Amino acid sequence: MKLQDLDIIVTAPPAPGWGGRYWIFVKVTTACGITGWGEVYAASVGPDAMRAVISDVFERHMQGENPENIERMFRRAYSSGFTQRPDLTVMGAFSGLEIACWDILGKAHDRPVYALMGGLMNERIRSYTYLYPLPHQSMADFWTSPDLAADCAAAMVAEGFTAVKFDPAGPYTARGGHMPAMRDISRSAAFCKVIRAAVGDRADLLFGTHGQFSTGGAIRLAKALEPYSPLWFEEPVPPDNIAEMAKVARATSIPVATGERLTTKAEFAPVLRQGAATILQPALGRSGGILETKKIAAMAEVYNAQMAPHLYAGPIEWAANIQLAANIPNLLMAETIQKGGDFHLALIKNSITWEEGFILAPTTPGLGIEVDEDLARAHPFTGEGLHLEMQDTPCDYVNENDFQGGAPATE
Length: 411
Fold this sequence. Notes:
Layout: E1 3-11, E2 23-30, E3 35-40, H1 47-61, H2 70-79, H3 88-109, E4 124-130, H4 139-142, H5 146-159, E5 163-166, H6 182-199, E6 204-207, H7 215-225, E7 232-234, H8 242-251, E8 256-258, H9 264-273, E9 279-280, H10 290-302, E10 306-307, H11 315-327, E11 334-335, H12 342-347, E12 354-355, E13 358-360, H13 373-377
Parallel strand pairs: 4-5, 4-11, 5-6, 6-7, 7-8, 8-9, 9-10
Antiparallel strand pairs: 1-2, 2-3, 4-13, 12-13
Helix pairs in contact: 1-3, 2-3, 5-6, 6-7, 7-8, 9-10
């Protein structure tokens, strides 16, 4: 087998757009006609620029190569241009292409990807979702209302979820970590209190942030949340300062989680060495692909850390996350958008099964999905924004911080 052709599809999910403004899918075909699908989770340049990067990485490092030679292709991309260090954009491009290689290999051998990586460890994969507004709830009010969040959490737990995530802690800005406003701390504690009362001990609370805070600010917030025993405190400070994140981890009883913005074992290793987090959240369309993330999981085992693959993208990255999750022994849970997401599931013809809070490990070859290529092409991205964007204005210490995240929330 040799990798021959590449096609790139940029798909925009319809409103409300859970999963970001657009998803970048790659379709790779071998000379013998086997097609593999992957997804690139990269948001630092626009989709047109990313198309060029993906094409360059494929043509320069992968085209004409046997898809089995993933280690060789990884080292080419990782070392490209005399770098040999993590490059978020290049490794994002490689990650999606690498996922497609595994899809090809699974189809060629008529086996799921996890079967080629050591076999099945987890038949049922615990899943969690962010709290998204229910159909009857006001989207404008939802993000700052503990009561609406609690109603949604109760509904998700009734569906079968045993963990729910929410992020009421104010804006994540391009200015870096800030001290939270006092009302942001109060609102965050109120969310935890009311949601805990709604779900009791039937579900874990996952407190999401996106690197919003200064070290001292994160510690102050953690102290306010500790009485409600969240399972994790996610990315409390910007991800580029591991030593400061470690200070937060030492100062709170809440386990710290991080990883959605990191790529390759070179960036995850310091997190483990410095004790900055005990839960790693790689996004496989960015972290280096399936094999590289299995190596990250193996490193985490040595430090008694667990894995919770991140998802704020499309269903092909979700499928890759599931293959890894089915294979590794130190899985905690995997992120899911609702119970799979209506548009997500339509794009893969409902080929992944979510059942009472768990994802069932696929048994069909490759990634275990069937992509509806026509549907993906029928929803092209025509906007100008990036997949996710940070707020430019600083935290507001006078008025309410009402930040709805990086993707538009459209009624």
